[in-house]
Amino acid sequence: MLLGPTLAVAAVLFVIGVLGVLIRRNAIIIFMCVELMLNAVNLTFIAFAQSLGVGGQIFVFFVMAVAAAEAAVGLAIVLAIYRHKETVDLRNINILKG
Amino acid sequence: MSLVTVVFWIFAVLALGSAVLCVTRRSPVASALWLVVTMFSLAALFVVLDAQFIAVLQVLVYAGAVMVLFLFVIMLLNLGRGAGQDRKGVVGLTVGAVLAGWLFVQLKFLWHAAPPALIQVPNAMAQLQQQHGMVGSVAGPLYDAYLVPFEITSVLLLAAVVGAVVLAKRKL
Predict the structure, then answer these.
(1) Whole-number Å distance between alpha carbons of A85 and A3
(2) Taking CB atoms and an 8 Å limit, are B16 and A51 in contact across chains?
(3) N or C: which terminus of chain A carries fewer CB neighbours within 10 A?
């Protein structure tokens, strides 16, 4: 059983994703880091499903569906912003800053 | 160490290394390609953890569809060169490092984590797959106990398709 090591790997993967969201400014790369975090959580679900039954794997299925929908809508938003501002750098996208 | 453990660590190190490269590469295209490597390694980890069907889905949906969408948008917007500095300044780096350090501290509690022995069935997934097959063990509950969430997911995907078209279209 590899439960402990898998949870550790998933946690490190999640931390790398959080770090990416915090230190990068490119909107698309931040999106990819969010996907990385979702994948880390999926790994946790799979690890627990191995000894707790199939529920975790089914939840991973739903997470994948939601992630695909999120990527489609999010990239459409990035596209719309790029058309408006000619950039995806988050420094220049601050109209909600007040 | 058994063969399974060796394979697990090979792909775990591959996933973590390519995740770090994904976060640190300057060019968005390089970042996306390293993320594809991470997703493939995670699919291999899923196989090691008795989730073969989910591993296939991971390759098809994530490494296939979602990453193609990302690469398509990167190339459509012509961001491939990775112009200029896109890391945040000292403040952002400090906040990131502190938060990451704190999360790493919490790791040492995870290393020996296990669910309570009472609710834990050794090799539960392996037994289910013996009875119902690799796909059947996931598909059975999906169309039975989880039927309503499954249908709601289809509505969500429809809404996402309509939303993406509305957002990306120049004029309706």
Answers:
(1) 47
(2) no
(3) C
Per-residue confidence (pLDDT) for residue A70, from 0 to 100: 92
Does the CB of A34 have a partner CB in chain B at under 8 Å? no
Quote the distance between the C-alpha of residue B19 and its chain's center.
Answer: 11
Identify the closest residue of chain B to A25 by CA–CA distance: B86
CA of A43: how far to CAs of A37, A60, A96, B12, in Å? Answer: 10, 9, 35, 11
| B1-82 topology per CATH | Four Helix Bundle (Hemerythrin (Met), subunit A) (1.20.120)
Q: Which residues of A touch B115 (CB under 8 A)?
A: 48, 51-52
Domain ranges of chain B: 1-82, 116-172
Does B69 lie at the interface with A, CB-CB under 8 angstroms? yes
φ/ψ (deg, to 5) at A65: -60, -45
**Looking at the 3D structure of chain A, how many domains does it have?**
1
CB B44 within 8 Å of CB B9 = no
pTM over 0.80? The answer is yes
ipTM of the complex: 0.91
Residues of A in contact with B104 (CB under 8 A): 12, 15
Q: What is the pLDDT of residues A62-95, one digit of tens each?
A: 999 999 999 999 999 998 888 888 888 888 888 7
Cβ atoms A57, B138 nearer than 8 A? yes
